[in-house]
Every structure is written in C-alpha cells, then in structure tokens.
Amino acid sequence: MPRNIKFVFTAVFLTLTSGIFFKANAQSVLENEISIQADKKPLGSVLDLMEEKGNFRFAYYGKLAVKDSVVSIHTDNNTIKGVLDQLLGAKYEFKESPGFVIVRYAPLELALVLEKNTVMSDGQQIVIGYIVDTQTNNRIENVSVLEKNALVSTLTNKDGFFELRLKNAPQAIELTAVKENYKTVTMVFLSEIKIQMGDKKNKTDYIDGDFSEIERSGIGRFFISSKQKIQALNLGGFISKVPLQASLIPSISTRGMLNTQIVNNFSLNILGGYNAGVRGLEMAGLYNINRMNVDALQIAGIFNTVGGSVNGVQLAGIYNNVFGNLRGLQVSGIHNSVKGSQVGLQMGGIYNNVYKDSKGLQIAGIGNTVKGSQNGLQLSGIYNIGKDTVRGAQITGLFNYAKELHGVQFGLVNITDSPSGYSFGLLNFKKGGYKKISITSNEISDINLAVKTGDHKMYTILMAGRSDRTDEEKLFSFGIGLGKNIPLGKRFTFNPEFSTQYLYLGNWDIYNSLSKFDSPFSFQLCKGVALSAGPSLNFYWSEKQDKNGNINASTFVQDRTKRYTIINNNSKDILGWIGWSFGLTLF
C-alpha cells in the first residue's frame, strides 16, 4: 500500500473508531436531553434556564448573538445541542469542558490538509500541511495548528502552510486547526513511532472569560508579538497545565508560541516571559506577563502584570498590575494597581490604586485610591481617596477624601460627602456639616479670627489673634482646637471648645503657650449671622528666658489678666484666670 494512502486510511480509521468508542463510554453534556418552553423571552434568560435545568454553565468565546434579543422556543426532550441549534443556528459551534458548554461564533469552515509526515533520524517527527477555506478554496494565513498532547503549535504562513516538529510524538497525533470566525477542525492519525508516555500527561481545560485586555494594554502592545496575539485569539480558552517553562523573552521560550495557552507550576524568565498563568513560583530578571490567573509568588526586577486574578504575592522593583482581583500582597518600588477588588495588603513607594472594593491595608509614600468601597486602612504621605463608602481609617499628611465615611480621617484637610464618621484635621468639610467663621474679642486679644469646620458632634478650630499695647509690645496668637455644637432651641446654641495656642510676645525663642476652655452661647440674629458670648477658663505657661539667656521681660499677659487671676505660680511660670469672649459667628 503506498505511503500516503496508508496514511489517509489510518487517519480515517482512527477517527471513526475513536468517535464510536467515546460515544459508547461517555455521555456528552451536549447530548443530554432537556425541555424548554419560552415565548418571546430574551435569549439570555433562555440560556440561563438551560444552565439551571442542565446543571452546567455556558462559556462564550468570541462574538455571540445579542443576549437581549427576543426568541421563542417550544421543545420537549431535545438534546442541548439541538436546542442551541434552534436558538443560534449554524453560525455557532458548541464544545464542552467539565461543567461548561462552550459557545463559539464560527460562521465559516476550514479544512486541514496533510502533505507530509516524516520521521527524522533523530526520532523527531515533522508534520507538514496547509489550511484552506472550504467555501472559497483559498489558503488561509494565521491559522493556529496545535498538537495538544505534545503541546506544540504554530501559525500558517501567508500561503496557508504549516510545519510542526514533534520531538516526542504521541502514538496518536491529534492536530487541531483554529481561527477566529471559523469552525474548529481536528484530524487524528497514528504516529509511525511508538513512545511510552507513562504517567506524564498534560491536563487541558477550558478557561471561561475574556483575558484579551492585557494584550490591548500599553505593556501588551509593546512586549507581546503580533503572532502571540493571533495565537491567543485563535486558541481562546484552550489551556494546558505543565510543571515548568523557561524563556529568554516572550517569543523565545521552551514552549514557543504556545506559552500563551500554558499554566506553569514554575516559570523562569531570564529577561521576561508571557504565559497563560502560574500556580507556584514565577521569577524574572525584568518582567512577568500572565494572560490569565496567578496563584503564586511572582518576583520581577521591573514589573508584574496579570490579565486575570492573583491569589498570592507580587514583588516588583517598579510596578505590579492585576486586571482582575487580588487576594494577597503587592509590594513595589513605585506603583500597585488592581482593576478588580483587593483583599490583603498593597505597599507602594509612590501610590496604590484599586478600581473596585478594597478590604485590607494600603500603604504608599504619596497616595492611595479606592474607587469602590473600602474596609480597612489607607496610610500615605500626601493623600488618600475613597470614591465610595469608607469603613475604617484614612491617615495622611495632607488630604483625605471619602464619598461616604463610616470611620475616621486624620489629615490636614479632610473631605467627605456624608454627615457620618469622624474627621480630625485643620480643615474638615462634611455634607451638612459645621462650617463657621468667628470674629471675636477677649481679655488678651483685641481681635481673633477662627475657622471652624467639621460637624455638630465635633468640629476643629483653626485660629489666629492680635493685640497691640504699644508700638514695641504686641501679641500674636496662633492655635488649633476642638468644639461641639449643642442646640438649645430654635435660635440658641451652646458651643464648648478647647484650644491650645502659641503666643508671640516679642521673642520667637521664648515659648509661651495658652490653653483655653471656652463656653460661648450663641443667638442667631438672622440666617448666617449669630452673636456669641461666654466665659472661659485659661492656663498660661511661659519661659523665663531663651536658650541664649535673654530674659522674658514681657508682662503683656500678666497685666491684662491680673484682675481675673485664679492661679499665679511664679516658680513654675503658670498663670490661670477666668476670661471672657464676645463676637460674631458667620455662615
């Protein structure tokens, strides 16, 4: 029998017998019977009903009919494939993976033609063929041709040809041709060499989800070759799991272009690598790029970026990026980003960003941002932003913002769009909060200006005052404080306040401090204007001389308060008195 006739006969025989074998021994999900009654229902609702009745899930790859299109179907004891054929028609193909029915838009058909199957002297087997469009008979470029048992793949060239080199060819070679918008074609034939595979098997799966976003990102456009992107587009959710891989750069690796479809237990990338995912450990001198999920420890000199979710730890010299969710730890020299939700810890030298919800801790040298709800702690040098509900604490050196606060803020400036929570800072702005400006006079300061912000249960005070006795002797005061607004009626309020102030009395090197307990009552004259007056309890501490021996000769405070004095302890430089204040409160 001629070689090529024997080749074709063997392929046809194995295909037919394997099809009979699997039909006899395994009941396909697509062959399970189901009854569906739906009249003018959205397609998505009908598919959800099929999932519920058939105890499986749909996985959509590529273009799918609009799920809100209206359909009607009445069928009893029909196969799941039969129902899908009625709903979607011949432009779709259906496959299955454990627990899934895969729906793929494929209106066109291709054919896989084998030309040569050669065994070399070193045992390597070379398979050569081409791919054609069955309707036009034109040969097709950029078709992925895969031998999934040996985990070897390639793309057809501009003339539609492909060449696969199989170093350890399995006994039954299974070639699969895949291209976007074409139905998948598989051809099975017997290898002329027999190799005992033992227990060394690669598990293949279908992974549900669209992980192409990473290829459209700036990093993906720069580091991932066009051939790798085409390969990932054609093969879609086909994923294999292997123990290890190594690469110099993404296009030069032990798995060739198929690394886009392989999940590794250990991945070593000398400069950088691009893989489907990792379950274990991944290390790179410069960068790691993963198309799908990572359950691992990732270490890179420059950056790690993951198209799916991360359960584990990412360590990078500059940048970590997760397109899905993070459950674990991110540490980088500059920036960490999670486009899904975060549970765990982010530590960035410059800033951290979470696009959805955050539960845990963010620490950054400059700023933290959570676009969803936050439950935990944000700690930064410059700013913290929570664009939804913040439950926990925001602590920063400058600015905090929370859309809805159910926790506490510590910063120079705090802003929240809700009346709840507590804000501690020089300026605190809250929805429906307490925002007042007071102009008053008291026993030592002729004029005082105070800005009061916060809410009625607690507001902060930023104040300054001035008095002149002579051209040479003046008093300037600067201080901060806390207060509470207690309504006593429609127009009356009581505002107990505590403040501490620094007093300048002619020499900055001599420390003078004043602690005040004010208890003014306010009467609202009209909207935005109120009169305030009340007593105060004051304690004044001063130094006798500065570090250079200059004597504190000022008697400004003593002279102004002597008729109110209740404590005069010269040995400890403490003075106490009962004082008063009177003025206007605006807004």
Automatic annotation (TrEMBL):
Signal peptide: 1-26
Database matches in SUPFAM superfamilies: Carboxypeptidase regulatory domain-like
InterPro entries given in the database record: CarboxyPept-like_regulatory
Keywords per UniProt: Signal
Gene3D superfamilies to which the protein is assigned, alphabetical: Carboxypeptidase-like, regulatory domain
Name of the protein in its database record: CarboxypepD_reg-like domain-containing protein
Organism annotation: Flavobacterium tagetis
